[in-house]
Write a structure and sequence with these properties.
single chain; 111 residues; mainly beta; Alpha-Beta Plaits; 2 domains; two-stranded antiparallel ribbon; two-stranded antiparallel sheet; 2 helices; elongated; binds iron/sulfur cluster
């Protein structure tokens, strides 16, 4: 199957096919030593306009649209998988209403 990647990225040094996905074939040399970042997602529901950008673009699918309505009548997001958040802060940067933000987890020395 053609992966769309150049051949050298799907081969090991000796020319045998790479077993893992070519997207993840390189791993950090300090993997397992670096602390794992965990974000704590906080919401200001009354600011949300229900656009869903934070839900759509979260790379870890941490957020889902909740069943609840805010004061403006929109469904705002809720955190469905808090343990999956890697503190990338993409949701914070994308939100046009500044309704979602991150707090450092206690494990990172946050308060
Ligand atoms: S910080 Fe990143 S991983 Fe965490 S909820 Fe926001 S977009 Fe998802
Ligand atoms: S990006 Fe902001 S306004 Fe849009 S759904 Fe998420 S929290 Fe609400």
């Amino acid at each position: 199957m053609d992966s769309g990647y150049p051949e050298k990225l799907t081969m090991q040094m000796d020319g045998t096919p790479q077993a893992e996905s070519p997207q993840f074939w390189r791993k950090p040399i300090d993997e397992g030593k670096a602390p794992k970042l965990v974000g704590v997602v906080l919401m200001i529901p009354e600011r949300c306009k229900g656009c869903g950008w934070c839900v759509e673009f979260c790379p870890r699918k941490v957020l889902v649209i909740s069943e609840r309505f805010n004061i403006k009548g929109y469904h705002y997001p809720r955190v469905a998988k808090p343990e999956e958040c890697v503190d990338c802060r993409l949701c914070e940067r994308l939100c046009p209403e500044f309704a979602i933000y991150l707090k450092r987890s206690p494990a990172q020395g946050g308060s």
